[in-house]
C-alpha cells in the first residue's frame, strides 16, 4: 500500500528536504509471462492497465514502453478536454471520459490539475455558424452542456479576442462548453502509473516491441528488446506507431501517421482564462498554470514519423493567432515541437478486437486523444478483459471500415482535420 | 520542412506541394465484383510505413502536376522522384 499524498505528507517530507518521497512506481524487469501486456506507456495505455487491475481484477499484467512513460503524445499535446462531439456514438465516448475526469484527482490521489475553465469554439463563416449551431443542439440532446454565443457574447467571455468584422476571418459567433477545460498531461500518466503499480502492474520502460508471435490466428507473446514475454492478450495503444505494431502481426490498419505541431510562449501573467479553439484557421490557445500560452497548430498533410513538422504550418497558425489576438504580437515563443498522430479516415478512434485472437487495438485518436484518456482506458480494459466491446465503444470497432458504418467526425467534431 | 525536386519545375520548398498519400494503389478493374473486405482494403487500409514509402505528391502552388516520390518517413529524406506512369527507380 502506497502512502497517501496529502497536506500532512507534504509537510512531513518538507522536513527531509523532499529527498525521501516513496517511489511512485517500481522499475521491474519483465516476468516470463503475463495475463495481458499493454504495448505503449502513454496516458491511454497506463489508464488501460489501471482499469484492468481495478475493475477486472487482472493484476498479473504489464505495460511495455519503448521510451519513458508519458514521453510520447501524452507529453506533446495541448491538454484540451471537451466532449462536444456531433454524433451520438462520439458524444457517449467523450462524455464518458469527461465524467471520469471530473473525479479523477480524488480517485487516483494524484492532482491531475483538471481545470474546467470552458472551451470555446469560434465560427468564422456562415457554414461554421450553421455547423456549430447544429452541434450545440445535438450536444444538448445527448445531455452535454453546450451554448451558442453570438459575437458580443464571445467578446464578453474572452475580452482579448479581436471581434472586428474587418479582419480576414471575422468572429461570427462560437460555442461554449463550460464543463470542458484542461488538465496537466504528465500528472495523468504519472497518476495512472502510480495507481496501476500499487495494484501490482509491472511498468517496464525502455522496452521496445520488436515482434508479435502468433500461432495461427492466436497471439502467443511479444518479442521485445528485453526478451520474449509470453501472453495471451496484447493491447496495443501505440498512437502514431500503431501501424508499425500492426505490420508485425501481419495486419493493415486504416491509419496515416502525420506530424501535429504545438508551441508555447514565454510565461506571462494570466491573460486568457479559458481555451479558445478556432478550427477554420487552425489556432488553438490556452494558458498553462506556469503562464505560458499553449498554442496548437494543424497537422502536416504527409506521412511522417520524424516528430518534426513544417514551418509553414506554424506560420499559418501564428498568423491566425495574431489576427485574433493582436495583444500577443510581441510575445516570444519558447519551444515548438511535433507529435506523430494516427489519423483514421473518419477522424474517430478504433477501440477494437481484431481478426487475430488476443490482439486488441486502441488507436486512431488522431489529433484529439488526450481528452479521452480515462474513458479510453476504461473501455479498452473492458474490451480486453471480456473479449467484447463495452456498449460505448461498440461503434468504434475496426469492422466499420468494411461495413461502411463510419462515425464521421471530420469537421463535425468542431475541428477541421 | 524539406525541399522537393519537382520533376517538372525543379527544386522547390515543400510548402508548395500537397501530399496525396500512398502511391501505386490500383483502382479495381471490376468494382462490381469486389467484396466489402476488398473495398475496405482499397479505400481505407494503408501501409503507413515507418521507413521507405512510395507516395503521390501534387505541386499545387506550381505546375499543379502529380508525380511520385520515394521518401523515408522516419527522417523525411527523399530517395527519388519520378513521373506518374514511370516505374519506381529504387526498391
Summarize the structure.
Chain A has 417 residues and is of the alpha/beta class. Chain A has helices spanning 7-14, 43-55, 88-108, 126-141, 151-157, 185-198, 242-248, 311-324, 373-386, 400-403, and strands at 33-34, 36-39, 61-64, 80-81, 119-123, 147-150, 173-177, 181-182, 202-204, 209-215, 218-224, 227-231, 234-236, 256-265, 275-278, 283-287, 293-299, 333-343, 350-353, 359-363.
Verbal overview:
Chain A is built from 10 helices and 20 strands. Chain A has an 8-stranded mixed β-sheet with strand order 6-7-5-15-16-17-14-18. In chain A, strand 19 and strand 20 form a beta hairpin. The radius of gyration of chain A is 21 Å and the shape is globular. Chain B has a 4-stranded antiparallel β-sheet with strand order 3-4-5-6, with no helix packed on it. The mean pLDDT of chain B is 94. Chain B is built from 1 helix and 6 strands; from the N terminus they run E-E-E-H-E-E-E. Chain B has one domain: 2-Layer Sandwich (Folate-binding fold). In chain B, strand 4 and strand 5 form a beta hairpin. Chain B is globular and about 45 Å long. Helices cover 9% and strands 37% of the residues of chain B. At the A-B interface, helix 7 and helix 10 of A face strand 3, helix 1 and strand 4 of B.
Furnish the topology, listing elements before pairings.
The complex is a heterodimer of chains A (417) and B (91).
Chain A lengths: L6 H8 L18 E2 L1 E4 L3 H13 L5 E4 L15 E2 L6 H21 L10 E5 L2 H16 L5 E4 H7 L15 E5 L3 E2 L2 H14 L3 E3 L4 E7 L2 E7 L2 E5 L2 E3 L5 H7 L7 E10 L9 E4 L4 E5 L5 E7 L11 H14 L8 E11 L6 E4 L5 E5 L9 H14 L13 H4 L14
Parallel strand pairs in A: 1-12, 2-3, 2-13, 3-9, 5-15, 13-20
Antiparallel strand pairs in A: 4-8, 5-7, 6-7, 10-11, 11-12, 14-17, 14-18, 15-16, 16-17, 19-20
Helix pairs in contact in A: 2-6, 2-9, 3-9
Chain B lengths: L2 E4 L3 E4 L4 E5 L13 H8 L8 E7 L7 E7 L4 E7 L8
Antiparallel strand pairs in B: 1-2, 3-4, 4-5, 5-6
